Amino acid sequence: MSLSQIDVAVIGAGPAGLMAAEVLSQGGAQVTVFDAMPSAGRKFLMAGRGGLNLTHSEALPAFLARYREAAPRLAGAISALAPDRLRQWTEQLGQSTFVGSSGRVFPTAMKASPLLRAWLRRLDAAGVQFTFRHRWTGWDGYGGLRFQTPHGQRTVATRATVLALGGASWPRLGSDGVWTDALAARGVAISPLRPANCGFTVAWTGFFRDRFEGQPLKGVELKFGTHRALGEAVITRSGIEGGAIYALSAELREAIARLGAATLHIALRPDLDAIELVARLSAPRGKQSLANFLRKAQFSPVAIGLLQEAAVTASTPLSSLSPAELMRLVSAVPVTLTGPAPMARAISSAGGIALDELDADYMLCRLPGVFAAGEMLDWEAPTGGYLLQACFATGAAAGKGVLKWLKP
Predict the structure, then answer these.
(1) Are 37 and 133 in contact (CB under 8 A)?
(2) 3-state DSSP call for residue 87?
(3) Residues linked to residue 3 through DSSP beta bridges, in sequence order
(4) Pick from 21, 48, 3, 6: nearest CA to 374
């Protein structure tokens, strides 16, 4: 076992940890970033694989509301590093940004890798040290940080620590949530980690599953109670996922936890009002099959399959429905969700360190000198730039908190 002394340790080389390291180095602290993986920002790079959604351009009051019950606690950090300031920061790294048609903000390059490379170069120039393949396992009896490394156990004494280990989604990229045990052992209240922005399991029939796995339901409206989401959903072999599903995932997940299942309703043609829809469905069919008739009425094969799946579940032949009954089904196809998809497939996770465990500077009240930031805190938000924004902002807030703590 080796023992060493450093100034400030940041544990976790994702967006929250790197932002904390930047703020700390700018404030004059000597910073070492530790990470269990062989390189920095692995989940960040994965997030940018299909286009890095950094933040969102909507007005700040509406933006903050996306964080639900955690909004009052996150407001200060996000206001201090608001979306427009995050865009300025990105452009200072040589990465221009643009606002997409949905209001989402992306780097012009779309990828995460150019931004991450530029950021790491700047951190290196500022003197930030990086130590990889160091898995944090807690503290020793004297308050030193314990790490498991390829060369055995290492203990590091620090003046202050920022924990930014992420949640529990995409564990193969480093955020596996195993840190909960070390903090719980110190009396820190932790809400159980749960999948967020996730898909859900559905007991499809074998025919539907085999025929439509991977097929998108485009331009649909999903409805659950008073909640609505327009967009796209994708049929998976075990259920359903996609952007519109993710937008309702918190409500669906909690309902399943209470009741054991949740019924989602899918409007297949929300672009048509009831009168026009009934008119289309009342047109003479002649000798054509119902499936062909619906295809000519501009229903996709997967939408027709979903209607047939609902009819099988209800033991009511689709062909026996009147145009009005068919219209009602088309406007609200019931799909029973039996559980969230596994955490490893979730975009993010809910739960984590209770926000009441932190003071205004993101320091853990039970552990003076230990700060926390990012997805390991108990907040959740939809996709659309809100996840990364809160990670960047809380990382910056924790870095400022450490500087305040260390100030003579």
Answers:
(1) yes
(2) helix
(3) 155
(4) 21
For 249, counting Cβ atoms within 10 Å of its Cβ (0-12 exposed, 13-18 middle, 19+ buried), the class is buried
Residue 286 has pLDDT above 90, yes or no: no
Instruction: Please give the full DSSP string across 317-371, using - where no structure is assigned.
Output: -GGGS-HHHHHHHHH-EEEEE-EEPPGGG-SEEEEEE-GGGB-TTSBBTTSTTEE
Sign of the torsion formed by the C-alpha atoms of 186, 192, 195 and 201? positive
Residues 299-347 pLDDT 10s: 999 999 999 999 999 999 998 999 999 999 999 999 999 999 999 999 9
- Burial code (b: 16+ CB inside 10 Å, e: under 16) for 144-175 equals bbbbeeeeeebbbebebbbbbbbbbbbbebbb
Could you report the per-residue pLDDT of 338-375, keeping only the tens digit for each?
999 999 999 999 999 999 999 999 999 999 999 999 99
Distance (Å, rounded) from C-alpha 294 to C-alpha 285? Answer: 9
Parallel, antiparallel or unpaired: strands 152-157 and 145-149: antiparallel
Question: What type of residue sits at position 272?
Answer: L
pLDDT at site 1? 47
What does the block give as tokens for 356?
Answer: 């009441």
Kindly state the average pLDDT of the residues 30-51: 93
Q: How confident is the model at residue 285 (pLDDT cuts 50, 70, 90)?
A: confident
227 vs 248: CA distance, rounded Å: 7
Residue 147, phi then psi, degrees to nearest 5: -130, 140
At residue 390, does pLDDT exceed 60? Answer: yes
Tokens of 366: 């039970």
Q: Is the pLDDT of residue 3 over 90?
A: no
Domains of the chain by start residue, with CATH: 2-195+350-406 (3.50.50.60), 200-340 (no CATH)
Residue 194: both structure tokens together: 């749960």
CA distance 4 to 14: 24
